[in-house]
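Researcher: Please translate sequence to structure tokens.
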Amino acid sequence: MDITQFYQAFFEEADELLAEMELLLLGLDLETPDNEHLNAIFRAAHSIKGGAATFGFVALTDTTHLLENLLDRARHGDLKLNTKMMDGFLETKDVLQKQMGAYRAGAEPDPDMVAQICAVLRQLALESGASIPAAAPAATPLLPAQKQPVEPVPPAQSSLKVRFSKITESDRKVLVEELCNLGDITAQTQTEDEVTVWLNTTCSADDIISVCCFIIDTEQIAISSGGGEVPVAAVATTDAPTPVQAIATVAPTSTSAAPAPAPAVPAAGKDSGSIRVDVEKVDQIINLVGELVITQSMLTQTASMLDPMLHERLLSGMGHLERNARDLQQSVMSIRMMPMDYVFSRFPRLIRDLSAKLGKQVQLVTVGKETELDKGLIERIIDPITHLVRNSLDHGVERPEQRIASGKDPVGRLTLSAQHQGGSIVIEVGDDGGGLVREKILAKAVQQGMAISETISDEDVWQLIFAPGFSTAEEVTDVSGRGVGMDVVKRNIHEMGGHVEIVSARGKGTTIRIILPLTLAILNGMSIKVGKEVYILPLNYVIESLQPLPKDVHSITSDEHVMHVRGEYLALIELHKLFDVADAINDPMQGIAVIVQADGVRFALLVDQLLGQHQVVVKNLETNYRKVQGISAATILGDGDVALIIDVVAMQRTNREKARQRSSAAAAADFRHQVELSALEG
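Model: Translation complete:
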């Protein structure tokens, strides 16, 4: 039997257990630790050890065995927790993660790394007065190439009666083969969907469960020893919870700094409440549903031309089809949604380690961890948020002595929040630190040669920190200060169809707000017409639309104009020129100006008509065709035509670059003029 087919389930569940372990460790009060939390941490280590031993992952088994023994003493009150011990536990968690990474890649973990962390754990055991534990109990080798840990005293054999119920024939064969690996089968009976095996084995019930839970549900297993049959949950003692019990926990979602006990739920993929599905399969379904919605739109548009009196039943059916297709689309899209807790749960450790390194005291507050975002976006948002958190800790939150001098609590507060607003999600990274200093940012901008007016708004000043190479840090550290991060943050967020806003108050703190679409698969858009072409404008960039008046449109060059809107001059981009569209309206006064905003800058797009607002299914243009300047993607309209989706951010960048070129050209012309005057005067 190929045992590797169960690796992925083990790795995924072990990842969840390690994440839970870290959160619970960070939330422990060292003076009066919560016993439920200690039990949950112990169960996590115990479960990982059981699974690792089953699959023959020796390094992982040995490390968790040492950790498990220390945790067992701690939860029984025989070991006093301290900061050094907590640092050792967290370091062990990191090493376990690296070990699993090596096994995932089909390699053995670095032996020096394994030896080092085992030495740390043994030293902690010695310092606490605990005896150094023996090597972890070994399961029967499942990987012939790997050496199992040696058990100093061979355990005595016992006779167990193992019953599997509600199983298929293929499962029966696999399960019996696995029991053969774990001991000697002395008898066996079976019915249509049940098999009972009498097994002489040196393995405990835990070992049997660790193997079988990757094949069938725990509810399908019952084990007895010497007496009558008992449920699986009753086999393990309170001192040794079953691996299944521990695997069946999830990370806490408390919004406070101290996590609440994790509720026990059935393991993912092992019950009727949840299943594990490959992401590619979900994406295939989403693509097919998208095609179905497009087809339904085509049929609806065709049916709209029919006589409603003659085709009443057909049109009624089309209405039902449209509603069902939209509901199906929303249901399928929700499968890809993940809670923001997936992102937020990794920051307590980062904040703990980094604040200690910087000599600061920081409390993390999370709000809206249950808010959901598309999986594709939630994984891409982790790095930008990480950079913002590091920046807040380094530049935002002051040292305790500075905060006390300012009349603040010595413990700073960093808040991570997420909430839905319409078709978008708003993610905020905020601190109660010193806030941004306008004068300092302006001085740095002038130093870097930026043409900045002293009268620009605070909002525009704050946006300067996203410029490439921009940093107001007085010294470069290994945390920040090189000016190479914030511009990448902004660019990554723009690539996800979002934008960034900053709110800051001197002495009170800074909040950076990220606005993202909930998913990149569906877009709320405004359809516009230029000549005979139809384009889609993402609604999250659109502010308003209006018809230009002659007195408001001014020429800069022969082919460039600006438009005066309520005291502000906005660049006017004529889409028919940008995309070379024939038969379009050339006179700005005859068209419609759509005011959009990107990168905190407003500008106007000149179009012929506004057609309406609706959701569109986004199709990747580069995959199906090639990259087109000013276009981010495409969609298929109800009549079957392809409409291009405008890249508003790219347009803003192009417009900004043109403005810089004009400024450079003007500066060069002025220089030449000065040289000519000097020559004449000489």
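Researcher: Any highlights?
Model: The longest helix spans residues 648-681.
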